[in-house]
Amino acid sequence: MKVPLSPTATNGLNRESAADAVQHRSVETERFSDYVGYITADELEAIVLAVGVVIEHP
To answer: More exposed terminus of the chain, fewer Cβ within 10 Å: N or C?
Structure first.
């Protein structure tokens, strides 16, 4: 299950992309050193819902 993400000036993407809810994993926040951009609240909600479906969260 993938959530499509289109490039915008805010998110820093340079081509059509997707958040793949099936390929989730935990990552230490210390590994993130630079921000590329930000996604919208609606995009984040769609990703969270997709992950919830994958892990069968009610």
So the answer is: C
Reported as type and span, the H/E element at residue 43 is helix 41-54
Specify if 49 maps to a domain.
yes
Closest CA to 5 of 34, 51, 38: 38
pLDDT in tens, the chain (58 residues): 899 999 999 999 999 999 999 997 888 988 888 888 999 999 999 999 999 999 998 7
Rounded CA gap, 17 and 55, in Å?
22
Residue at 43 is within a domain: yes
Write down the pTM of the prediction: 0.81
